[in-house]
Amino acid sequence: MIRSFGPLTDADDLRVTESLRPLDSYDGRGGYDPAFIPGDPLPLPGAGAWADDLVPVEGGGTEIRYTHFSVLMSASRALPLFSACNIDGKLSDRDVPRTDTWRRDPRIDNRFQNLREGYGDERRGLFSRGHMTRREDPNWGDRETAKQADADTFHITNVAPQRQGFNGGIWLDLENYVLDNADRANLKVTVITGPVLAEDDPVYYNRKIPTAFWKVLAFIHAETGQLTTIGYRRSQMDHLPRPSARFVFGDFEDTQVSVASIAQETGLDLAAFAEHDVMAGGEAFQIRVRSVSDFYLSR
Questions:
Q1: What architecture is domain 30-294?
Q2: Can you count the helices (H) and strands (E) in the chain?
Q3: Global pTM exceeds 0.85
């Protein structure tokens, strides 16, 4: 049984704007860089099973490019399939003021961009606008570039509905942990983040809500000097407004999983990342983690 809550919006929420930026103000956005980390190129994940369901972008293509990250969106779900970000730890500017105003992107059709429905005060059972690319991650380079990157993360294209209680802990700490274990001479990390979009996702406020999210991180390992990737999956089942009828055995809140298993669950092509996975060959296994220090970063 799918639980469906009635329509509610956060029309009183002052953190959103209906105004669109001019199209030409997005000129020069480079987006995700496949060659960002030295070694084998890591191309943007392929759409895989979603190839016929991608949102088209003004000017051609389906990659929505921002400052240091890119997004691919599902048309049927009006949600990102993933957001792919390059992080330069040496040039990071964590002091950039938080933009904190959500907006649509004029380069794609508004009907694929849910700015308000189902989002708002958690005390009313509503969802948070959960960043896929974390707001701090692309904020590197000179101050103006970092400010532009921060503002770019507040596009609704970079969002999936999350309960506030879910949006913390390991989910927020993992990128910093990997940076702490990366090669100090090459302090760069690539992070791909997205929801698991399933046919039987529960419905709240007329929207199918993802019950799980994932990350794939790539970096040069400090000890081995090798390009390394890890996979991470997080469930928000226990945080949904009411218990869902759907139950998956072993659906722990935080788990390290193989990149290949993420590809299988999401339908995306992550082959380039799976090649360097510390859990390669262990596709059937998952490791329950209670803190970032529980992650395996090498084979």
A1: 3-Layer(aba) Sandwich (3.40)
A2: 4, 12
A3: yes
